[in-house]
Amino acid sequence: MAEKGHLFSSIFFLTFLHILHFSSPKLEVSTPPPLPILPLPSFSQLKWQQREVIMFLHFGPNTFTDSEWGTGAESPALFNPTSLNPAQWAATAAAAGISLMILTAKHHDGFCLWPSKYTTHSVVRSPWKDGRGDVVKEFVSAATAHGVDVGLYLSPWDRHDRRYSHDLPYNEYYLAQLQELLQKYGNVREIWFDGAKGQNAPNMSYYFSDWFAMVKELQSSINIFSDAGPDIRWVGNEKGFAGMPCWSTINRTLLAIGAEGISEYLNKGDPKGTHWVPPECDVSIRKGWFWHKSESPKSLNELLNIYYNSVGRNCVLLVNVPPNSTGLIAQEDADTLKQFKAAIDTIFTTNLAHNCSVKASSQRGGKEGGFGPENVLDSDHLWTYWAPVEADADAGREHWIEIRSQQNQALRFNVIRIQEAIGLGQRIRRHEIYLDGKKIVDESSVGYKRLHRIKTGVVSGYVVRVRITEFRAVPLISSLGLHLDPFWHPTGL
Ligand SMILES: *[C@@H]1O[C@H](CO)[C@@H](O)[C@H](O)[C@H]1NC(C)=O
Ligand SMILES: *[C@@H]1O[C@H](CO)[C@@H](O)[C@H](O)[C@H]1NC(C)=O
Ligand SMILES: *[C@@H]1O[C@H](CO)[C@@H](O)[C@H](O)[C@H]1NC(C)=O
Ligand SMILES: *[C@@H]1O[C@H](CO)[C@@H](O)[C@H](O)[C@H]1NC(C)=O
Questions:
Q1: Signal peptide span per the entry (predicted)?
Q2: What is the atom index within ligand 3 of the atom nearest the CA of 327?
């Protein structure tokens, strides 16, 4: 009996499923995305790229001695910020829309801003908080409280420690400190290594492979910065200017930390590059990296120029804002950063193309494919994009996308923004932009974000067409914008 009942209910259930299946509407099947072109960014590299502007904080004995490179002979007694307040640093970053702050835990002078077990040359010997303070700890808690992520710099060159120049003991010391910094302070999103070193510094081999392996073991979502990556590369100068073109891809085998003669390669990257190692542009808001009473912040126009040449050329801008000897970010620096953020919002919050119609040479999967040109006007700048039909290029037909004013009202702008769907690789080698049939831009790579300021100033017209003339694989455009920058006035006009 029990068996029979079970059988009946099973049949009933199957029939019920059957009816459900056939009565539901036919499901639409979407066109799959095109294949990626390698190399691709990692999850953490993509997250980093979208930060756009991040902050460096150079702080230590140099802040109190008015110098840039300490000798290592500084007395820890000098380190005495009277009102150190990392909450003010974090609030300054957050107010400027900055989501990552990197602190110099140790600079070339060797003084440690945290109480390291492996040296006495640290805050422990300083009068600050009677030697019981920990700047790194306060920095991390303040950043976390403001929703800002943290990164750290641990200088390889150490002018204080006597183990320096003795390969084995110094590398052991350095690795021990890396373990302290990456185990005790929670999530660290970026670690900064550089090859900076004085002309007469003693010879010393750094065990980079050991360092990198240790970093990746201790922090799962970290990006390692150095001249040579592996995750983020130096842009080759300290002016905040990326090259044109600027590729996120490069051959890592051609790079070495501290090597001479590679700055041009670092600046531009390599369209044939075997690794995804995008560039970061480090530049200070003032002349020096450390705070000096005699220096003042750059002007808003200088900062905007840096922004266009870094973020606007497929890079992340790492702007240094040095705390002063009181332990606070100077008010004029905080004010400048706030103006910088407000200016960027003024320029980019409104996309003047927002109400335009968009048309393209072709679209993958046809009208219902999900890859139409209208995707360039939505708010997703990564995973929704216009994809043309791949065969077009083989057939000798070019790829283009066009924005047309709808209300019979002229579009007035002086900045054009183009973004590639870099989650599937960087593709565009050359592109041209036309306004009502007249060429106004003739340029190379795009990447995550490319900003073009129109050389002649504000232009107006009805139809903006972007032609993609050379590409590594079918171009994928995730966003297009027309903007009016009221702060920019081309010189000589
Ligand atoms: C470092 O080593 C190179 C060659 O290995 C040598 O020419 C140079 O003099 C050394 N420099 C110092 C400061 O010892
Ligand atoms: C980078 O590597 C690729 C692949 O091996 C190669 O085609 C390209 O020429 C290399 N670039 C340079 C500048 O050597
Ligand atoms: C550091 O900046 C704070 C905030 O602007 C200011 O109150 C303080 O006087 C500055 N300290 C020095 C030494 O300039
Ligand atoms: C788009 O149209 C809406 C509704 O007419 C209007 O409020 C908005 O200002 C327009 N945006 C632009 C950028 O022209």
A1: 1-25
A2: 1
Ligand 4 binding site (Cβ under 6 Å of any ligand atom):
350, 352, 354-355
Ligand nearest to the CA of 355: 4
Residue 390 has phi, psi (to 5 degrees) of -65, -35
Distance 384 CA to ligand 4 centre (A): 22
Within 13 A of 424's CA, how many CA atoms are on the CB side? Answer: 24
For ligand 2, whether the C-beta of 354 sits within 6 Å is no
Best of 247, 249, 250, 251 for a ligand 2 pocket test (most atoms within 8 Å of beta carbon): 251
The residues spanned by each domain of the chain are 43-348, 357-483
CATH class name, domain 357-483: mainly beta
Q: 479 CA distance to ligand 2 centroid (A)?
A: 30
pTM exceeds 0.90 for this model: yes
Average pLDDT across each block of 10 residues of the chain; the chain has 493 residues. List them in order: 49 50 66 97 98 98 98 98 98 98 98 98 98 98 98 97 97 98 98 89 94 97 95 96 98 89 96 98 98 98 98 98 98 98 98 97 92 97 95 78 93 98 98 98 98 96 97 97 94 56
Ligand located closest to 356 CA: 4
